[in-house]
Amino acid sequence: MSFINEDFLLSTGTARELYRRSAEKMPIIDYHCHLSPQQIARNVRFRDITQLWLVDGHTGDHYKWRAMRANGVSEDYITGGGHSAWEVFEKWAETMPYAMRNPLYHWSHLELKRVFGIDKVLGPGTAREIFEECNALLATEEFRGQALIRKFNVEVVCTTDDPADDLRWHRMIAEHPFGTKVLPAWRPDKAMALENPAAYREYMETLGGAAGMEIRTYRDLCEALGRRHDFFAANGCRLSDHGLACFYGIGYTDSEIEGIFAKVMAGRTVNGEEIAKFRSAFLHDQAVMDAESGWVQQYHVGVIRNNNTRMFDLVGPDAGCDSVLDCALAEDGNRFFDRLASEEKLAKTILYCLNPKDNAVMMTMAYNFNDGTVPGKMQFGSGWWFLDQEVGMRRQLDSLSMLGLLSRFVGMLTDSRSFISYPRHEYFRRILCDVLGKDVEQGRIPADEIGTVHRMVRDISYNNAKDYFGF
Questions:
Q1: CA separation for the pair 302, 78 (Å, rounded)
Q2: How deeply is 227 buried, as exposed, middle or buried, from its count of CB atoms within 10 A (0-12, 13-18, 19+)?
Q3: Which H/E stretch holds residue 28?
């Protein structure tokens, strides 16, 4: 029997029925990813499977990089650029047998099967034939970037974009549509990155140039971001996203924030308390803009980045050296959302955590602020980053079920830089159907409510996201 067969991850008859009748053919709304709008607009043609799957200069799949390093593969094969595409791929193939029970093992074989139709287990003995078969397909029109997206019935893709971006590639895609909407998503992290005053001042010049104004004060910063926010909205943006170590919700005064901003712009270093106060103000003002624009806001919380200094100096950020942060979220998070709710400026919100210990914290925090105006207005998002694997997804579904309404969940996203990560939606849908199918067969859900369960699967797979985001 094939490894990736029709019953993969579906352990009961009911699970298989739910998947085949209600999940398998539903379209995809990929509301958070890191695909390159430029590559989409130019309908990128990949040179080979190594460029598509593993590494392209100093960018690529840092999940795989971590696994290769752990398997003893020299950095020269990963980001060093000292070897051919085949030699790099061969090292990944040599790593695969050691990756059993790592999600990369499932993801990689799902992608080989669903994207390339290759029904072989990748390893040293099959590496060369798989490499050549993938490369032959990638040379055809059917395997260029836009076709790869269409292959998986993707209705909407939301990229991740800086407020200073001119969105030229999004506009080009809109002018030459290919069947999938590609919309920007607002990611203003650089505008609150005070730790390096020189870099921050340089970014203020870039942002001010994009907004057509000079940024001298914090109020100027807010005005510039407001102009860019309107520009993004005019180009189809409906979501913001914030990558945070933790929540920020401490008290501050307007004069304090102006003083902190002036200090950084003068090239002086700020302390931890000043950074926390600035971010509390900044995130509040951003959230108010989102609420007034009718956007959905997302908070990805709990990561500590670029921990390996040597690797950061060699490769830069996103090198596979980020990890879970163990921090307290509840007090500042609840305080932050309470202020917005009290001001009636709380937008639809999705919360993600990177530490599984925080599942219940994030879930109960979100449900403190649902107000009956929108189904699932505040909700706990899908398993993120290190948690978007089988165990993490099952735990996230359990937290949603125990502490809220699973039926209102907006479902999976790729959070990926790869054009062939869409089988992760299939992976999630199979796990969802397996969880619900077991509950039906074990009597935890009434068997005569199977129609409701089918509807739940369709809603979580697609309908809820379509209604919630209103693209």
A1: 27
A2: middle
A3: strand 28-30
pLDDT per residue over 368-401, tens digit each?
999 999 999 999 999 999 999 999 999 999 999 9
Instruction: Say how far apart CA 461 and CA 455 lie, in whole Å.
Output: 10
Could you tell me if 298 and 242 are in contact, meaning their C-beta atoms sit under 8 angstroms apart?
yes
Distance CA 181, CA 157 (A): 6
Task: Transcribe 443-461 into DSSP letters.
Answer: TSS-GGGHHHHHHHHHIII
- Rounded to 10°, the helix 218-234/272-293 angle is 40
Q: Which helix (H) or strand (E) holds 209?
A: helix 197-211
Contact (Cβ atoms closer than 8 angstroms) between residue 428 and residue 393: yes
347-366: pLDDT as tens digits: 999 999 999 999 999 999 99
Burial class (CB in 10 A: 0-12, 13-18, 19+), 271: exposed
Strands 239-244 and 296-301: parallel
3-state DSSP assignment of residue 247: coil
- Encoded amino acid at 420, one letter: I
Query: Tokens 């199918």 correspond to what residue?
Result: 437
346 token code pair:
């709380």
Q: At how many degrees (to 10) do helices 103-116 and 423-441 cross?
A: 110
- Six token digits for residue 191: 């505008």
Which pLDDT belongs to residue 290? 98
Nearest Cα neighbor of 425 from 33, 15, 96 is: 33
Location of structure tokens 């932050």: 336
318: left (phi over 0), alpha (psi -120 to 50) or beta: left
What is the tens place of the pLDDT at every residue in 100-112? 999 999 999 999 9
Task: Taking residues 429-447, report their average pLDDT.
Answer: 98
Residue 137 contacts residue 112 (beta carbons within 8 Å): no
The three-class DSSP label of residue 436 is: helix
Please state, in angstroms and rounded to a whole number, the distance separating the CA atoms of residues 52 and 35. Answer: 12
Whether the full predicted model's pTM is greater than 0.90, yes or no, is yes
The conformational region for residue 411 under phi > 0 = left, psi -120 to 50 = alpha, else beta, is left
167 SS3 class = coil
> Alpha-carbon distance 23 to 16, whole Å?
10
